[in-house]
Amino acid sequence: MSNVKAIPNGMHTVTPHLICAGAAEAIEFYKKAFNAIETSRLPGPNGRLMHASVRIGDSTVMLVDEMPEHGALGPKSLKGSSTSNALRSSTRRCQFVSSLSRRRLG
């Protein structure tokens, strides 16, 4: 039997996977706003990202560009989102930036 872990090292039980128009721009925003570290990037056709991931604190967030031909639509195309993500931090700066990001990306 294989020794493959159900949850890989560095991951948690739940990992957000965001679909957005402009995933590369979102990554740059997360780097500035939350000191995110980009851990992977898989470019796809037409300059879109097929997969990317960043670490914010001890958590991984995965991202992909919208790909309507595969049914992958983000909040801008859907005119809203049915999901929400909570970012926990003990610093006021992070809490303030989180508030700003909800206005900018929401």
The tally of helices reads 3
If you average the pLDDT, what whole number results?
Answer: 82
H/E series:
EHEEEHH
Uncertain regions spanning at least 5 consecutive residues: none
- Report the sheet-strand fraction: 15-25%
How many independent structural domains?
Answer: 1
- Provide the CATH topology: Signal recognition particle alu RNA binding heterodimer, srp9/1
Sheet with the most strands?
Answer: 4 strands, mixed
Distance between the termini: 45 Å
Annotation, overall tally of beta strands: 4
Please identify the structural class as seen in this structure.
alpha+beta
Topology:
Blueprint: E1 17-20, H1 23-34, E2 37-43, E3 49-56, E4 59-65, H2 75-78, H3 92-105
